[in-house]
Amino acid sequence: MIESLSLHKPHIEHWLVLSAILFAIGLYGLLSRRNAIGILMSIELMLNSAVLNLAAFNRFVAPASVDGQIMALFVIAVAAAEAVVAMAIFVAIFRYRRIVDVNRMDLMKD
Amino acid sequence: MEQFSFVFRNAWLIPAIPLVSFAVLGLFVSPISKRLAGVIGTVAIFISAAFAFLLAWNYFLSPAGKEHTALIAWTCEWLRYQTGLTVNIGVLVDPISVLLMSVVTTVSALVHLYSIGYMHGDEGYGRFFGYLNLFTFSMLGLVVAPNIIQMYICWELVGVSSFLLIGLYYQKPAAVAASNKAFIVTRFADLGFLIGIIILGYYGYHFFGEFAPAVASTAVKNGVTNLQPFDFLYLTNSAVLAKLASINLHFFDISLLTASMVLVFMGAAGKSAMFPLHIWLPDAMEGPTPVSALIHAATMVVAGVYLVARLFPAFAASGTALLLVAYVGAFTSIFAAIIGITQDDIKRVLAFSTLSQLGYMMLALGVATMAHPLGYSASMFHLFTHAFFKALLFLAAGAVIHAVNTNNIWEMGGLAKKLPVTHATFLVATLAISGIWPFAGFFSKDEILASALSGGHYVVFAIALTVAGITALYMFRIYFVTFWGKSRGDAAGHAHEAPAVMLLPLVMLAILSATVGFVNFSDYVSIGEPIEHHGINSKIAVSATAAALTGVFLAIFFYTGQTDRAAMMSRLLGRIYTLVKQKFYIDEFYIFVTHQILFRFISRPAAWFDRHIVDGGVNLSAWITRTTGGKLRYLQTGQVQVYSLWFVGGMLFLLLILWAGAR
Amino acid sequence: MISDAVYTLLFYAIAIITIVFALAVTMSRNLLRAAVYLMMVLLTTASLYIMLDAEFLAGIQVLIYVGGIVVLIVFAVMLTKSAEMLDRPPLRRKLSAGLASLVFAAVTICVFWTSRFPIAQNHVAVPPNNTEEIGLKLLDYGSGGYILPFEIISILLLAAIIGGIVVARKTPPPEQPFTTGGDLTGEADFDAPHTQRPRTGKHI
Q1: By the 8 A CB rule, do A39 and A30 touch?
Q2: How many Å lie between the alpha carbon of A13 and the closest alpha carbon of chain C?
Q3: How far is it, in rounded angstroms, from Cα B27 to Cα B21?
């Protein structure tokens, strides 16, 4: 048991599959949530899976360098900036419309 | 070339002055003062005429003129298609262009002067002088063209000016119809001309590398520095023509040269109103009389003759085309002369006379060859003399019409005493056109007849002699009916002589008509081999005079005193008379062809095709777009998540493609 | 040997926990709970980073994501009263979203599983001074340095802060509603007093 476990140490494919699953879950949330903040959370989930991807590649492809981690840091920073702006927008919309349902935000259709 | 220093170098001014004058008149003057427009237009043409005379004087009295050298006075590049294929504009100075320049500017200047009186008080006065200047420019540009492209452009420009001037009274339906008819018929003929130019230009350019060095080395002395494939100097070179004539089209066994020359002659026939395309010229008399005198008698209609003369070596190299020219000319000449006897409108008689005389010129060109070029000189000579006496006839007829306000000769009569100057000048012109010694027409007709006879074209000679008689008959017919006998209309009784400004050109043209015959013309204008000196051939002179006098006596017999002899004669001829009077039903034939055949079997199916297939196709594509758009509209829900769903789908699709491509 | 076995075990355990919490984030009807689940996902991911020898990244993850973004989200949820309204997406939307994400997962996993990656062969060599090197690289002017992206990110963050303040600041509501349908002001116009009606009669 222990031996087989030690022989099946997770390889890069496993990490990537994990991140793909997380991304797909985030995608599901992105496509199904009605609340804008829920969508934002899903997006954070997807970004997170992307960061995981970067870290995994860094570990397995170029373990001697830290470039992948630096990319991951940038992604986190951008995610933070995005979250700030998105929150501000949602709060502003809520102030006018008392709701943050994306299904009702369809003014651009006309 | 130093002997023509100033005038020669500035020969481009001759066409340029009318152009500038046209622009100034059209843009600035005629909206302000119509009277000033007339004065400026006339003065411009007189300056141009003075230049043309200076040039002619310098050219013909210099050795170059005696040797009939063609010189390029001025040239500049105008269109560049590629290196080695450019079109220049320029001024070609050679005997016929100098001749035509003098004729055009002289007649144009006198017509301008006359028009100041004739058009006085007309509402189209300013416009009229602008158009006349435009026409004069175009005609001069045509005359001096050193290459066939410039000639074609100016050719169309004279067509446009003719259209504008025929339709000057555009409120009059007949004038509009006539101007359209003139434009469409000549335009149709120009299609042939254009195709001919394209063929000539294509093959000329094809062989340009082969012949250009040899031609260019001889052309240098003509002042040509960069020879182009469209230049007349290149196109009329004997080596080039021999090459073109050697290409067989395997179509009725005609050569390439013949085919292109026949097409070019189609254009010439349209402009010069040769037989099947003559129908526009009689109707063109709807324009003001000075226009008829200038454009439809003296200058524009001889453009076709001039074109054939300009390309004469090419026509001569293709014997078939030249023969066609001779027979079309001969047929037109007798055909129009016969119709001329029966017409009642004074201007129409003169129009048919013009047709007949143009046929004469064509005929003379057709019987000439490079070895026996008498006909070439004769044709140009007739062109020269005809310009004066025919312009005079029209202007005098205009003076008559001005006095009696009608075109119908049967409403005139007895005008000899009331309009003495007009009567005298008209008589001079009638004698000149009939070929009575010592008036101008005698000499030029004599040369034409001599050239036909010496060339061995007996049929053509017989036709020409007959036409000489018929010409005298119809000209004296209108002369007697108009000026002799009693006044038949109210207006004819109260006719007054025209003002001096109109009479002055009449008198000047009468002097010219009476005297220009004595110019020893073939010394100045000829082509090919030198002409053996011939002088006046007594046999031909006697027969021509006899024919003319027969015509005169017939006219005296029928149309002086009582006129019932003519009426009896027409009754006697019955149907034949009607046939001739209706101009052999050519117009009706054309209408039948266009309406019953062209419209029904070509235009209508074409219209149906356009309406149902072409438009239907357009409508179908519009319908498809609209329907698809209507359906696609539902995709745009405004729901951001629906959009992202599509986005994800597209992304997956791309991912699959990339993945499949990478494996 | 034993550590490898523990490593494997840990990986699968944390992966399953992460996936479960992620599903909870997207499916929870109460957004406040979803935010808490999200925090859990981020924390487990941080532990995954540690397993990938990216300790600094794990620290940043906890600091920024958990300490910053999740708090921000929680604030937003409360400010917009989203926790009071349960998020019930329509079934059609759920099905299509589920289908799309399943297809996406299938395709991506397929691609990952069939692709060959240029794996580094020496399995050890992760330098122990990871963090130090990150810091040096971020501030390096040389060819492998990230000083320019670093500065740009700083400017981006500054812009985001200012933008957030400007957008969320309290301003008077605009004249026009956001949508044409379902708003209160649209109908109100019909009942507005007829002060603008043109007078046709005489001035009384």
Answers
A1: yes
A2: 6
A3: 10
Q: Cite the DSSP H helix spans in B484-499.
A: 490-493
Q: What is the pLDDT of residues B188-245, one digit of tens each?
A: 899 999 999 888 888 888 888 788 777 777 777 777 777 788 888 888 888 888 888 8
Q: Which of C78, C102, C79 is nearest to C23 (CA)?
A: C102
Distance separating alpha carbons of residues B605 and B332, to the nearest angstrom: 35
Cα gap B80→C155, rounded to integer Å: 58
Specify burial of residue C123 (Cβ count, 10 A radius: 0-12, 13-18, 19+). exposed
Distance CA B554, CA B558 (A): 6
C111 and B659 within 8 Å at the Cβ level: the answer is yes
Q: Does C97 touch chain B (CB under 8 A)?
A: yes
Assigned token pair, B57: 């004087």
Prediction pTM value: 0.65
What are residue B231's DSSP bridge partners? B147
* Cα distance between residue C90 and residue B51, in whole Å: 96
- Confidence band, pLDDT 50/70/90 cuts, at residue B563: low
Measured between CB atoms, does C162 come within 8 Å of chain A?
no
pLDDT per position as a tens digit, B17-55: 999 999 988 888 777 777 788 888 899 999 999 989 888
Cα of A6 to nearest chain B Cα, Å: 32
**Cα(B560)–Cα(B574) distance, integer angstroms:** 22
ipTM of the predicted assembly exceeds 0.95 = no
CA nearest to B633 within chain A: A109
| Peptide linkage before C174 cis (omega within 30 of 0) | no
User: Which ranges constitute the DSSP H helices of B412-499?
Assistant: 420-434, 440-454, 458-483, 490-493
**Structural contact between residues B34 and B115, judged by C-beta atoms closer than 8 angstroms:** no
Could A31 and B637 be called an inter-chain contact, meaning their C-beta atoms sit closer than 8 Å? no
Closest-CA distance of chain B to residue A95, Å:
21
Indicate yes or no: CB of A107 within 8 angstroms of CB of B639: no
Residues C13-36: b if buried by 16+ CB within 10 A, e if exposed: ebbeebbebbbbbbbbeebeebbb
Alpha-carbon gap, residue C188 to B572, rounded angstroms = 101
Q: What is the DSSP letter of B252?
A: T
Q: How far apart are CA B330 and CA B465, in angstroms?
A: 11
User: Would you place residue C202 in the very low, low, confident or very high pLDDT band (cuts 50, 70, 90)?
Assistant: very low
